């Protein structure tokens, strides 16, 4: 494994960091959170126009840049540093790969070029508590079902004019503002029960979307209600969506791990800077051995998480799943870095208005959606076959 960045990868990181430094500082982030969409409407076109970020990992034939998950993960390390509120995760990491993997050629040609150009956003509508299960992050998804309309799932039925959906999905990332929804729905009744994916226009009749109050305001979520909503089946009825969801889950975990590493690295930088400025007993608190030890522990955790995230990005390009374990380590490192940042900032660090809390909430929010950490590790051990049963030699 060669850990050196190519000139193209280094340029992506440098250009993106420059753009986010000028367009996505702490003040801009907090202002964006108060908008109806929950993100700066001007930032997304800038990311698309200058960097082609929405289409970074999409094929060139659909207007993308043609890069891999590795480049997308490196880019998201920079968006994680700034906690940039954007539809990147929902649109480009969760939804676009599924459309590319399972959609018909007409569906790909109709949606992917607009996603790559940044003119269309998308969201994967899977009920939040079941998202990690559907993506096979915390266990095999062979038993996953989107069913139970009244129980919080979504049902699909055939009608004279196509498919109709009814039910509800909560905690849908960017579900309130996405131009198109990719909805997981149960169909086939009891005898032929299965989960399929359906495309729903953001302005479809019978679709109700309400933004929810969330722990991590930088990741806007919505409750999506469908009342006899017209929908288009993604692919065909013979499409097996569960393997595609699992592949998307590993790639998403890889990107999320890199994003969390970027956030952890940034909060550590800010804490070290503050420790060198704050005076106590006539000297900076960063000069005290106890503070040095705590910061050193955070540094080791962040560097270990970065190594795991980079390996997962490298492995993703070679069909080797390693995203779940990297995500577990990165989330743990971010939570540790943010917690120490809050502590070492003293009284000001404990106020909700301090930026350290945004990073802590990001770690906690991601763990609620895609974890918890111990189950991510358990799934990684299961996938690697560490706990296979068999006779033990004595």
From TrEMBL:
The gene is acd. InterPro entries: Acyl-CoA_Oxase/DH_mid-dom_sf (IPR046373), AcylCo_DH-like_C (IPR036250), AcylCo_DH/oxidase_C (IPR009075), AcylCoA_DH/ox_N (IPR013786), AcylCoA_DH/ox_N_sf (IPR037069), AcylCoA_DH/oxidase_NM_dom_sf (IPR009100). Residues 254-382 form the Acyl-CoA dehydrogenase/oxidase C-terminal domain. It comes from the Bacteria. This is Acyl-CoA dehydrogenase. It comes from Streptomyces canarius. Residues 6-118 form the Acyl-CoA dehydrogenase/oxidase N-terminal domain. Keywords: FAD, Flavoprotein, Oxidoreductase. Belongs to the acyl-CoA dehydrogenase family. Pfam families: Acyl-CoA_dh_1, Acyl-CoA_dh_N. Its cofactor is FAD.
